[in-house]
Amino acid sequence: TFGGWRGGFADADKRLAAIRDIGFPIVTFVPAYAYVGLDTIDAASGPTREELGRAVELALRAGLQVVVKPHLNPPIYGPGFDMFTSDNHSWRVAAPWRGFFDVDPMSAGYRDGVVFEQLRMLKETLTRLGAAAPASPVRLDLGVELMSSIVLFPDRWVELLTATRKEIRRLGLEGRVRLSHNFSHHIALPEDQLLRMTARGRAAVARYIRGLDAVALSQYMDLTAAMRAAERNARPPTVAEIADALVLHETRFRKDVLEGLLRIPPKAVPELHIGEFGIGRGGLKHPNLWSGAATAAQEAALTREITLGMQGLLAYLARTEGRTMKSAVLWVTGQRYDVFGWGHAPSRNPAVEAAIRAALE
Fold first, then answer.
1. Separation of alpha carbons 329 and 2, rounded Å
2. pTM
3. What are phi and psi of 218, to 5 degrees?
4. CA 174 to CA 155: how far, in whole Å?
5. Are 308 and 242 a contacting pair, CB within 8 Å?
6. 10-residue averages of pLDDT along the chain (361 residues)
7. Positive or negative, the Cα torsion across 325, 52, 49, 64?
8. CA distances (Å), 352 to each of 217, 219, 236, 248, 340, in order?
């Protein structure tokens, strides 16, 4: 993952060189935009088309596969924002997570200002590349972890998909851009998302998913899930048990959610990807919990858990039985997740870096 607000991609050449040095074949660009009010997005908070386009161009010229994954974030996470002096009194300013946002995906701010803006950026970038443009298409996520928006506006996501395909044809990008959606792991927890919806709403989500080229999933499920219940709090899982847990979650997502609740026939399920993977303050049992102080002893234990978790992911990706995910992307922003120390030097984990380099070689 390579993310940033406006100005955050200025060092693209340096960051991409580090990504290539480790051996990654895929980079996911995450332009961040502040969600400041109902269906209102501060476009000036995100990278300019030229800034992001230059970074994407550098990646494509370097032979990297590219995913573009625009994020809506609360303004409080943006550089220089002070909620105590701001005139914005919306709850959205300090929402803890983008999944709670109530954005209508067909609103002008989102459709034109976020999704279509990425298409315009890709059109200009691929035009500059000319004959050097890659044969493999760029993947664009239409939405990322917008759980409540899916619950509130399932039909509008179907409309957005239709409108985006029309815009792709207008721009001459057919065959050059593939469309996906990065769901939060809450879609795999029925009570968190799908069971909040009517049967009609779930049917719309099923139509939406069937119309996509790919589905990505932020994989923050319990990595101890494959252990015997009596042993889960007595010892850490083995690398093989973590790989087993990932297979278990993938299988349940396919069978219980996509084919079960959403009634999508197996042959109609798009290809699947792990859009995010990382381990934060919650360790292997709650990888998505990122905040909270820790003692020195707890930090040492977390470092061991993060190392085990990454080794488990690598073991999972090496499997041919039970795994159908086509790729996995590491979330490397923030304390503990930043295992390479690119933005938070104390989080660098040499053991993880060595394991990833060896696996990619």
1. 10
2. 0.95
3. -70, 110
4. 24
5. yes
6. 96 96 96 97 96 98 97 95 94 96 98 98 96 92 98 98 98 97 97 97 98 98 95 93 98 97 97 97 95 93 96 96 95 95 94 94 90
7. negative
8. 22, 18, 17, 23, 8
